[in-house]
């Protein structure tokens, strides 16, 4: 198996996962080496939906690809996040591998253990060592040794390691060295993906979902809005506001901005009869002016209704005079009928308008 992996140039293979769209594969072959700063040659191909296989040729590119949590491939002013995972012969698109790369350091390690072989032997207790950092290699930071390690996220990480030194008198002196971990990705065995663990999983704990929490808070606000405080006997009690529930008329609030100037949103009143809309442009103002206008309208309607019999008798007299002077009796009779119908229609319109005005008030 190992020889087959080497023959197929898969020794330093990395999977790039796109979760929110991706450019064309021809563009990815041009963009990934440049934007991921790969130094060696690489071969890029589409492995499955949302996954590309990057075959790096040198260990440095392999480590740099896996060390960064995510790369952002930019094209046409749009960034596509790409997460990198180690390729595995048993690759499953529905599951992410539990192997990742992390930095570990050994504080207070004696400088005589800063050699590559010594550091790698210590790092082997955590995982597969890959390379030491520049300061450890150049011996410019004797206080701490740092190394990149390929770790399995499902296993427990040791917190310290014991080293032994043989002195000149052949006595072995032992010392505990603390292991410090930099960023290590979390792995969820329920979702089978990297990035979180079971304690932060929304599948295991749906109450932790931010949308769920937000909806519960909104429901709590609605319930609190329907409750009002009532003072009694020195204690505050919460009771339902029955007046709001029994209210038949609901007035919509006016918006703060409506076209500018005097053009404001008309006030709408909802009642059992229907919708009554006030002055559209609010030119006549509100308050006492509206009350005075309604009173004038009501006075005019009352006068019209009271004068209805007089108008009818007057019209009859006029019609009689017309009958006496007009030779065409049939024509005058038709005109009288039309005038009476007009008067009745006018009176009915005035009555309806008065009823609507009373309902509005």
Automatic annotation (TrEMBL):
InterPro entries: At4g02000-like (IPR040256), DUF4283 (IPR025558). It comes from the Eukaryota. Residues 212-233 are annotated as: Disordered. It holds the Pfam family DUF4283. Residues 7-95 form the DUF4283 domain. PANTHER family: GLYCINE-RICH CELL WALL STRUCTURAL PROTEIN 1.8-LIKE, RNASE H TYPE-1 DOMAIN-CONTAINING PROTEIN. This is DUF4283 domain-containing protein. It comes from Solanum verrucosum. The lineage of its organism: Eukaryota, Viridiplantae, Streptophyta, Embryophyta, Tracheophyta.
